[in-house]
Design a protein that fits this description.
The structure holds 2 protein chains of 2 kinds.
Chain A (H helix, E strand, L loop, with lengths): L13 H11 L11 H12 L4 H10 L4 H8 L13 E6 L2 H5 L2 H12 L12 E6 L11 E3 L2 E3 L4 H13 L1
Parallel strand pairs in A: 1-2
Antiparallel strand pairs in A: 1-3, 3-4
Helix pairs in contact in A: 2-3, 3-4
Chain B lengths: L17 H6 L4 H7 L3 H11 L11 H6 L9 E7 L8 H8 L1 H15 L1 E8 L4 H16 L15 E6 L9 H8 L23 E5 H13 L1 H5 L2 E2 L2 E2 L1 E8 L5 E6 L4 H6 L13 E5 L8 E2 H5 L11 H5 L2 H4 L7 E6 L4 H15 L5 H18 L6 H13 L7 H25 L1 H6 L11 H4 L2
The site of flavin mononucleotide (FMN) has 25 residues of chain B, from helix 4, strand 4 and helix 18.
Chain lengths: 168, 450
């Protein structure tokens, strides 16, 4: 659900605005709407999530109606419409990962952080988000953390990753 | 050792870099292709018998020849790197380890199809692979394989990488095009097909990463030589991503003459079932294709050894066969629960349904709920028939094949593992504590291998 309450106007940084122009140039004249998903990625990278304010900014950059941005942002599962924790543990829960113990990894993370899937730890550090197949089934169980994958997870690896996040 | 056409050099040190790739004969297919006519390239691809590697197995040369060519209208080639079918991770491997092979294939294919702007649509989660591809594209530019007037041929071509943002449905070609136009990934009604009306209503060909990469050896060797590898209509080599309870999960390039048994048990490939367990079942072509119990997997209904190719995997139709699909090979050992695994796949399809068609939107939700009930000890015997009924009403009644893809795994699980479903329903307590085991679909290997 879009948080319409958060309408504070936010803008992209200078270098990201330059990147937006580069992305628009990937497409023929008048087809700048195609840049929407990549630009939303830039916006989320900057803000950590997509507030209505940043989405309205994106709409104006691409000469779109805000609703065209909202309907796209709500369709794709990588876009966060609520502010998540500083780190999002996107743990794959689909069949092939389940065969290799993803259920146990998800419940172990939940135990360690005292949260349910979908929740954020009390200190705001980690959100646990079970996701569907990430194309790493042979290296299961696994999760996405930021730009990269963490594969061959075990309880011990989870402990190490948590430690890493706490220290960072 | 099977002949390798795609991954031969995948582990050469620094093969990701242009210099090493070029030293190993890279971009020779472009040199050769630019001296041919586009029609002649299409002809070679037709002769090769190459079938689309994205899942449907449609002959690539034929698809290319359907591309409409109205005067003054741009044409587009779009490479499908969305790879989200559970069990499938071969395109990622190819792009991550040998990115120039894809770029080379794209230059040749773009020339053949007359595409001056070519897009790679990659799933959003493969964020680091975008960097690898963009680096390869920049190197190809710097060395004159992309850009204006490539190698003095008069042909201009640019390749752009576009990230998706998490939606399995965007692998379906018309949903992909919607997404590339900056919209929700709702599949379009066909016809018109993309070859006539695709990206921004212009003629478009959408091909899988592996399909495009295979164009390189086809041009280098010639279509006929490529077709001589493999068997029947399963020509060339195929990448298989193997996962689940095996000793050596990973991506393997096979020539399609080997048996399923050899693929699972030989050390060259999966290396057998992990932890000394026995084989229970397998989904041989990505989550959307029917699951087969061990006995039907290793031998066809006629008692012949089943081979790793399109025809043999499909032998017996859905009654006793399955499908090559995307080459996502998922192996279940004796400890795995078919009900739980099917429930997990049902959840996947419910989550990924775009919601446009009621049978898919509602049906996937119902199937997930019923399977959860059975798995968590609240199932009724009538639920099995209800599930069967729902999947039957989805199949064939939707805009895109995701509906079928959601229905088939449930149908096959009931068809082949009905007793396991019944046991769950009759023994709710016990089913929470242990799994059903092998039952009568025992690994027949003991009897086969001496
Ligand atoms: C729900 C659904 C998901 C699909 N996902 C993919 C995918 O991730 N990658 C892919 O190449 N093809 C996928 N396809 C198949 C494409 O629609 C299309 O047939 C394919 O990209 C054509 O390329 P090919 O002829 O080279 O195989 C999917 C199809 C459906 C119905
Ligand atoms: S079958 Fe499902 S995914 Fe495909 S268009 Fe219909 S609702 Fe969408
Ligand atoms: S099922 Fe987890 S990455 Fe594919």
């Amino acid at each position: 659900m879009i948080r319409y309450s958060d309408l504070t106007m936010v803008t992209l940084t200078e270098d990201r605005l330059k990147k937006v122009q580069e992305i628009i140039a990937h497409f023929p004249e008048g087809k700048q709407k195609s840049a929407l998903i990549p630009v939303l990625h830039l916006a989320q990278e900057q803000e950590g999530w997509l507030s209505a304010g940043i989405m309205d900014h994106v709409a104006s950059l691409l000469q779109l109606d805000p609703i065209e941005v909202y309907e796209v942002a709500t369709f794709y599962s990588m876009f966060h419409l609520e502010k998540p924790g500083r780190y999002v543990f996107e743990v794959c829960q689909t069949g092939p990962c389940m065969l290799k113990g993803s259920d146990d990894i998800i419940s172990y993370i939940g135990e360690r952080l005292n949260i349910k899937p979908g929740g954020t730890s009390a200190d705001g550090l980690v959100t646990l988000k079970p996701v569907e197949c990430l194309g790493a089934c042979g290296y299961a169980p696994m999760m996405q953390l930021g730009k990269h994958y963490r594969e061959h997870l075990t309880r011990q690896r989870v402990d190490e990753i948590l430690e890493e996040c706490r220290k960072a | 050792m099977a002949k390798k056409l795609l991954l031969e050099n995948a582990h050469v040190e620094n093969i990701r870099s242009y210099g090493v790739y070029r030293d190993r004969g890279g971009y020779s297919a472009v040199e050769k292709a630019l001296k041919m006519t586009p029609e002649a390239i299409v002809e070679e691809v037709k002769k090769s018998g190459l079938r689309g590697r994205g899942g449907a197995g449609f002959p690539a040369g034929m698809k290319w020849s359907f591309m409409a060519k109205p005067e003054g209208v741009p044409r587009y080639l779009v490479c499908n790197a969305d790879e989200s079918e559970p069990g499938t991770f071969k395109d990622r491997y190819l792009m991550e380890f040998i990115p120039h092979l894809l770029i080379e294939g794209l230059v040749v294919s773009s020339f053949a199809l007359g595409s001056n702007r070519t897009y790679i649509y990659i799933r959003g989660e493969y964020a680091w692979i975008v960097d690898i591809l963009e680096q390869a594209i920049a190197e190809a530019h710097a060395n004159g394989w992309l850009g204006k007037n490539i190698q003095g041929s008069g042909f201009d071509c640019q390749i752009y990488v576009q990230r998706g943002a998490g939606a399995y449905i965007c692998g379906e070609e018309t949903a992909l095009l919607e997404s590339l136009e900056g919209k929700r990934g709702n599949p379009r009604i066909k016809p018109p097909f993309p070859a006539v009306k695709g990206l921004w209503d212009c003629p478009t060909v959408v091909n899988n990463v592996e399909t495009i990469a295979a164009v390189v050896p086809i041009i280098n060797l010639g279509g006929e030589a490529y077709a001589s590898i493999g068997v029947g209509k399963s020509t060339g080599t195929k990448l298989i991503s193997a996962c689940g309870n095996i000793n050596k999960p990973g991506v393997y390039e096979i020539d399609m003459t080997i048996s399923v048994e050899e693929f699972i048990f030989s050390d060259e490939y999966c290396g057998g079932i992990a932890n000394g367990k026995r084989l229970k079942a397998c989904i041989p072509g990505g989550s959307s294709v029917p699951i087969l119990p061990a006995n039907l997997l290793l031998k066809t209904a006629k008692g012949e050894s089943r081979l790793m190719n399109y025809e043999s995997l499909a032998d017996g139709g859905f009654a006793t066969g399955s499908s090559m699909g995307s080459g996502g090979f998922i192996v279940l050992d004796e400890d795995q629960c078919v009900v739980r695994h099917t429930m997990s796949l049902a959840r996947f399809y419910r989550h990924e349904s775009c919601g446009q068609c009621s049978p898919c939107r509602e049906g996937t939700g119902w199937m997930e709920k019923i399977l959860m009930n059975i798995e968590y000890g609240k199932g009724k015997m009538s639920d099995i028939d209800l599930l069967w009924d729902i999947q039957r009403r989805i199949e064939g009644n939707t805009i895109c094949p995701l509906g079928d893809a959601a229905a088939w795994p449930v149908a096959a699980a009931i068809r082949h593992f009905r007793d396991e479903f019944e046991w769950h329903i009759n023994h709710p307590e016990e089913a929470q504590k242990r799994n059903y085991g092998l039952a009568n679909y025992a690994d027949v290997r003991d009897a086969v291998l001496v």
